[in-house]
Amino acid sequence: MSSPKANIICLLKILWDYSDGDNILSMKDIKSKMIQLYGRDIDRRTVSDCCDALNLAGFDVSVFKENKEGYYLRSRLFDTSELRLLMDSVYSNNTIPAKASADLIKKLQKLTNVHKSKSYTALTVCRDNMKTPNKETFYNISLLDEAIIKKKKVSFIYTEYGFDKKLHQKGDRRHIVSPYSMAVYDGNYYLICVWDGAEEPCHYHISKIKDLHLTDEDIYPLPKDFKLDRYIQNSVYMYGGKPEQIKMRCHKYILDAVIMRFGTDIHISNNDDDTFTAILYASQKGMYIWALQFLDTCEILEPKSLRDEIIKVIKKSPYNN
């Protein structure tokens, strides 16, 4: 970079990589790094002019005249807590393969300086073996996004894990569906879609989708009065099914767990004993799985069909033998 204009880019890179409010660079530091990293010998006036140009362009550079210490980049696109939240999200997202997670983290670390990036090395994938082995996942998300925007059907092979702990094709046919949305739940991406002739959506785990193709066929329309956002919010564990009113009596011990799972948009009444009654809307399939986890502290009161199904499985449980 022989052009004098390159001084601005070089200075920005130095400020970006090495400075912040706790690591202020002196004029000597800047001149030294300019020579060491870029082989450029610049004077004080050039540094001052470059800082003025960077501030004019929208970068927030604090200068010696202002702070009486030196030069540093005062603000960035993401602060430390925001960047850590993004990295945590990458680590905890099971849909992102392990290698892709590591690559994304390295890219995110470039959004801060070398001093701050060291603090992120303490982050560890708690369950790396939960990461998907499907390398097509990123491509799937991108292509599904395109299909949803263009309102076109997609075709794919769906897979499941075998005893060898690898993904294998489930069934012997391709799935052709109308994609409507994607949802993130417990660190996993799900495709919300509709089969032709169906009255309500179904869900597919995106990391289990392989050989995905965009078709030229228009999507099958949902009923005009169907509220997709509401449907997704009421899907417990991403199980499909029409949301129904669920009434249950729970021990106060699990009040926090109930609100954490179903949110604050539920009706709760405090009973005289050590229980409370909750009324919410969710699919029976999802509630069935949830209620089985809390058999000793939760009793489904309504609907009767769900209550009867839980009683049936309790009676058939091997623990009763």
Structural features, described:
With 321 residues, the chain is an alpha+beta fold. The chain has four domains: 68 residues, Arc Repressor Mutant, subunit A; 51 residues; 89 residues, SH3 type barrels (Roll), CATH 2.30.30; 85 residues, Alpha-Beta Plaits, CATH 3.30.70. It contains twelve helices and twelve strands. Strands 3, 4, 5, 6, 7 and 8 form a six-stranded antiparallel beta sheet that branches. It has a four-stranded antiparallel beta sheet with strand order 10-11-9-12. A hairpin with a 5-residue loop joins strand 3 and strand 4. Helix 1 packs across helix 3 and helix 5 packs antiparallel against helix 6. The longest helix is centred in the middle third of the chain and has 14 residues. The protein starts with 5 loop residues before the first helix and ends in a 5-residue tail after the last helix. The relative contact order is 0.07.
Q: What number of structural domains do the residues give?
A: 4
Helix content: 25-40%
Number of strands: 12
Shape from CA axes?
A: elongated
Q: What is the element string, with H for helices and E for strands?
A: HHHEHEHHHHEEEEEEHEHEEHEH
CATH class of the largest domain: Mainly Beta
Give the mean pLDDT: 85
Strand residue percentage: 15-25%
**Major sheet, described briefly?**
6 strands, antiparallel
Whole-angstrom Rg? 28 Å
Q: In the CATH hierarchy, what is the architecture of the largest domain at level 2?
A: Roll
- The poorly predicted ranges are none
Q: Given the helix and strand composition, which structural class is it?
A: alpha+beta
